[in-house]
């Protein structure tokens, strides 16, 4: 299948690793000129695109600064991928989650997308482009140890549907992708949530990672790979699905059991 994306432009947030890096690589492989917002510029990312911008997307001014720079470098924005985010674990549940925790989680997982979209949208409208928000299965599966993250991702999914409703008639397609457990640092890094969970369970990281699919009820028996999410982004960006707008595409290995 030809996606016919060569010569188009994109901005990907949170592109330093994991899903964001995979999305940047997949788009670049299709001939897209990609601006990558990343905390660090790894050799893998530099190989995918030379247009890398370090910016604090939790700040009020950061997203606007990024989009202004992207428009100058690219000439316009056909695609915005709101990927930046993180899922800090709250072992103590709701009562251990402070106002500062809530504010930071929403700034990173929701308001970064709101502000980035606001800044990019005029160009996306002009080019009849697309916006893809990277959400989470936790928008539908609320867990006490992810109380603020799950709420932020639920808000992000609702935000995407509202955008699709308002700007669909202007030719803009807005969709959300909601992955389940994905083989990223969140699960595999000792300093991230996976490390905390492994220590709580008295397991090594290898032991912990090996048991995640069964423990989380993945009927496929395997993690989602970042490349799988990236493939969905490419399809949504390509226009091969012109009537897909306002959708929330779940890729979770069968984790959700309710229809």
TrEMBL record:
GO terms for molecular function: oxidoreductase activity, acting on the CH-OH group of donors, NAD or NADP as acceptor. It comes from the Bacteria. It holds the Pfam family adh_short_C2. The keyword DNA repair does not apply. The keyword ATP-binding does not apply. Keywords: Oxidoreductase. InterPro entries: NAD(P)-bd_dom_sf, Sc_DH/Rdtase_CS, SDR_fam. Signal peptide: none annotated. Belongs to the short-chain dehydrogenases/reductases (SDR) family. This is SDR family oxidoreductase.
